[in-house]
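User: Run a structure prediction on this.
Assistant: Running it now.
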Amino acid sequence: MNAIAKNELSITSRYVRNVVFSLGGIIVILSFFLARKISKSITKPLKQLEKVIYDVGEGERNISEEFDDSEVGMIGRKFKEMVNTNLELSERLMAVRLNEREAELLLLQAQINPHFLYNTLDSIYCVAIIHGDDQIAEMILALSNNFKLSLNNGEKYISVADSIRRIEEYMKLQNMRYQDRFELHIEVQPEIMVNKIISFILQPFVENAMYHGLEPKLGKGSIWVTGKRAGKNLVFEIRDDGVGIQDLSKLETGYGIRNVKERIQLNYGPEYGVTFESEPVKGTTVRITIPEKVKGMEKHVSISGD
């Protein structure tokens, strides 16, 4: 009996040992595959990230790698977003540099073209004088003066006096065309004539008054250009006795007028600008308000000659 019990105990012991070893083996195998899977889930995005970093370092611009939702994958996605953002910023910077280069080329071209233009106009003027066509000669002279004042040697600011002269030359040309239909009245305080203002902010409103106010009107019409010092500001008004404008919103949203308003606010600040008043049949008044002194700009300039 004793021997039988020992034999059964031995069999049971071997069975338990085999079961333990088998379970241990299964656990080891499962642990191996599980560890491999976990390792793969970590190493795969790491290898992807390594590849992306290498490709970017080699100058690759199109990143096609897709990352999973793991923590490493999240780092990869953020890196990809950063690369794409930097690429977009680089492209914008390149576009800005190209635009700057184009602007430089245009500026160089603009410095050449006026000389050709002036020489051509002078030649036409001389031919008109030789042939005794005084009216054509006068028109060419007025046009040449207007161009010279408009270009202003590429300067951003112009004296009030030169700005008024530009208007006078412009109206002289228009009166030759329209047979003296328009009268121009200048009422600007002499003491502000030497003040500087940004170029080309008065004449567009004179042109607008002529084409939209006076041209549709029967008979003659007048334009008044006034300018005065008001506290620390300069106030200019362009007034006409034309047909008036019913819808001022159309006037304010026109490209030329909008351009002037934007340049005034860009150069002087949002508190400055242009206002409009108009009545049908009675005419239109445009009021331009700018500061008399601008930081970083000399107040007085010499007035250019003819």
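The first strand starts at residue 157 and ends at 159.
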